Amino acid sequence: MAITLFSHAICRQHNAGDDHPECPARLDAINDQLIRSGLDYILQQKDATAASKADLCRAHSTLYVSELYAKAPTEGHIWLDPDTQMMNKTLQAALYAAGSGLNAVDEVMQGNDKQAFCAIRPPGHHATHDQAMGFCFFNNIAVAAEYALDKYQLERIAIVDFDVHHGNGTEDIFKQDARILFCSSFEYPLYPNTGADTVSDHIINLPLPGGCKASQWRAAVSSEWLPALDAFAPQLILVSAGFDGHAEDEMAHFMLREDDYNWLATELKTIANKHCQGRVVAMLEGGYALSALGRSVVAFLKGLM
Ligand SMILES: [Zn+2]
Fold it and tell me: Residue 104's pLDDT is what?
């Protein structure tokens, strides 16, 4: 039991305005609940470092990365899609968000029975090989996975994405790469309205209806993901940890609660203990109901312990 928490103050400085749900207060809400729960005493907290262009270009096209650097405004803001704006500090925040995944991979690969959680923003799982979308600029989890494949010569990495939205960007980046087992559960139909018809032997999508109860979600995860993850025998488990499927989160219509996130973390830890010395790296994706977000992160981390 040794969880390291990576974050960086600059991740708070990307600010798309007071009425934007992907707001700096999300990280404060997580921090508040870590303190309230006493977990802040147990976690090892470290500052993330920034990803380099070369790190980003393992998951994204060089043209896309170069264009994002070139577009980054020094004042004002620009819109990359109707949900996704870039301002003065956005590029820096995105570089540290992506970099935290590399730090976390190093942390768990170089220690025994180690887990890491990256409390970062902007999130990443909608960013495709060559497109920003849905609040996402760089695909943090994909950048981390590519780094682990490259630096540690891994052959099997599982990416588990329980954000209520389909991890379309992650699927796009790894659709031809069977070294990755990608598992995504999501409300369908709902933004980005992808993933329901994916046919692949290394992508397990669980499109579930609005109003989905926890029992239905757990049953789907138990029958579709857990046996496949066990059979895949991952050398590392990465998690796109989005908490917007919480019943209190108005971004979508799932009915999940803290104990469901705790349950999934426990199941993933069991698989990680069996196959990869307990190595789990989770990175924050969505989660917009602030109180529920903080409580859910605490429940998830307790499940990893
Ligand atoms: Zn989401």
Answer: 98
